[in-house]
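Support request from a user on the community tier.

User writes: "When I paste my structure tokens into the form, the page sometimes reloads and wipes my input. The last time it worked, I copied everything first. Here is what I submitted, just in case something in the input itself triggers the reload:"
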């Protein structure tokens, strides 16, 4: 028989017994910690207490988090079942709001989904599931300030002795970093890692700080020195190897990048976890812009991407699948995916609006870029470069699109615009070997010999010692 049971945070759950509530607490902790056993914990909870509304709701949430068309359809079925179930059993108001959030998510109304979780947190600031999901949603709506402020609003309500308090610090750190407050971000991120060295999200938050502040060698040491701890988490661990690769790229340690790519980043690519694909495709394109021949590596990615041409969940993710298809020369798959994005842009959902305003132009620009139609790529990509935040992802992840635009401007032989845009980039990234190298080439083409020599020297200074 279902009854109301309170957890240690004072949250009320409709469940068969208190053990189910305790299991849900462990599930929330595992989800925050990116632990590989998270899915198994949910399956066991659903088996032992199939009528528990929050267990069923979380099943729908996790299906949506996978981000594929098939799992989104599954989540919609779970949401419909949950709504009928809640009406029959009379779930409590917090559970009803969670069910409403899942329904809004399944309908593509992402701002409303986030608003519902934030509404829950006004009254129940220690609802860890709502906290973590809101963090995720603000991330993929591209709103770093909301990521920051969402945690700031509830953090004082979390006692430091709480088992998940360190995860809160790490989420706050990441929101601070994405809002440009890197000093505070580093402080909170390092504090979180001291509390829990296995907290990969917090290790990741500090990795972002080190990337944004261009402390490349320190970044390598930060990630590799803690590998034994964060490598115990789920596939998110491959994203930390991706961050390590970014540091190696700027230091010119290209063999290290290829080794990490082959040994780690694509080691479980057939599992079709979308972040693995985002890591791999953006890294391969970056490698090519650094002058590396990546061989046949694109084809393995395209084999995964072709299974996702009909996905319409996250524009950011779909663009990375599209990159794999066009780079592997899968014209049929690429055309189908552009068709999906075009149709998607005509719907009345949050991501559809982003497709129409940014995503479709980026997809067309990427196609032109790959076809060697450099000027056409610039025409498509340049007008949306200040709107890239909308597609979601982090600053570091979105940077590949900025790099592609600059690469296309230079390749289009528009030397004056290229000089301006590379100078702009060096204003943000004064320790970028890639930017200094190309800036020097542009100055050389314009006959600015002294500036070209200085830029070449600056590029060499950033690189690792031979």
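"...and here is what came back when it finally went through:"
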């Amino acid at each position: 028989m279902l009854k109301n049971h309170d957890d240690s945070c004072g949250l009320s759950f409709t469940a068969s017994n208190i053990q189910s509530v305790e299991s849900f607490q462990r599930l929330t902790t595992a989800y925050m910690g990116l632990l590989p056993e998270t899915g198994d914990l949910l399956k066991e909870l659903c088996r032992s207490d199939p009528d528990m509304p929050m267990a069923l709701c979380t099943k729908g949430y996790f299906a949506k988090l996978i981000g594929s068309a098939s799992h989104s359809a599954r989540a919609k079925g779970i949401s419909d079942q949950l709504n009928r179930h809640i009406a029959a059993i009379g779930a409590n108001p917090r559970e009803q709001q969670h069910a409403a959030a899942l329904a809004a998510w399944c309908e593509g109304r992402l701002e409303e989904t986030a608003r519902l979780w934030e509404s829950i947190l006004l009254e129940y600031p220690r609802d860890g599931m709502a906290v973590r999901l809101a963090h995720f949603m603000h991330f993929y709506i591209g709103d770093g300030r909301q990521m920051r402020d969402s945690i700031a609003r509830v953090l004082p309500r979390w006692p430091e002795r709480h088992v998940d308090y360190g995860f809160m610090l790490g989420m706050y750190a990441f929101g601070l970093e994405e809002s440009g407050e890197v000093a505070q971000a580093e402080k909170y991120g390092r504090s979180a890692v001291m509390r829990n060295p296995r907290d990969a999200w917090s290790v990741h938050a500090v990795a972002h700080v080190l990337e944004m502040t261009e402390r490349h060698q320190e970044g390598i040491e930060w990630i590799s020195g803690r590998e034994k701890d964060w490598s115990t988490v789920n596939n998110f661990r491959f994203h930390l190897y991706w961050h390590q690769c970014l540091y190696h790229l700027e230091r010119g340690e290209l063999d290290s990048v290829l080794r990490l790519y082959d040994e780690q980043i694509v080691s479980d690519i057939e599992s079709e976890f979308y972040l693995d694909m985002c890591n791999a495709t953006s890294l391969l394109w970056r490698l090519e812009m650094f002058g590396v021949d990546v061989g046949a590596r694109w084809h393995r990615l395209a084999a995964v991407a072709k299974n996702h041409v009909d996905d319409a969940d996250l524009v950011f993710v779909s663009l990375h699948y599209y990159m794999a298809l066009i780079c592997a020369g899968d014209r049929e798959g690429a055309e189908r995916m552009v068709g999906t994005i075009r149709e998607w842009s005509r719907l009345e959902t949050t991501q559809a609006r982003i497709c129409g305003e940014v995503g479709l132009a980026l997809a067309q620009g990427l196609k032109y870029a790959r076809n060697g139609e450099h000027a056409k790529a610039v025409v498509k990509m340049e007008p949306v470069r200040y709107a890239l935040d909308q597609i979601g992802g982090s600053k570091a992840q979105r940077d590949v699109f900025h790099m592609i635009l600059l690469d296309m401007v230079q390749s289009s032989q528009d030397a004056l615009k290229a000089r301006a845009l590379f100078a702009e980039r060096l204003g943000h990234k004064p320790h970028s070997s890639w930017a200094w190298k190309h800036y020097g080439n542009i100055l050389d083409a314009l006959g600015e010999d002294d500036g070209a020599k200085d830029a070449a020297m600056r590029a060499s200074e950033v690189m690792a010692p031979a």
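Agent notes: The reload is a front-end session timeout and is unrelated to the input. The chain has three domains: 1-141, 269-405, 413-462. The beta strands are 3-6, 12-15. Escalated to web team.
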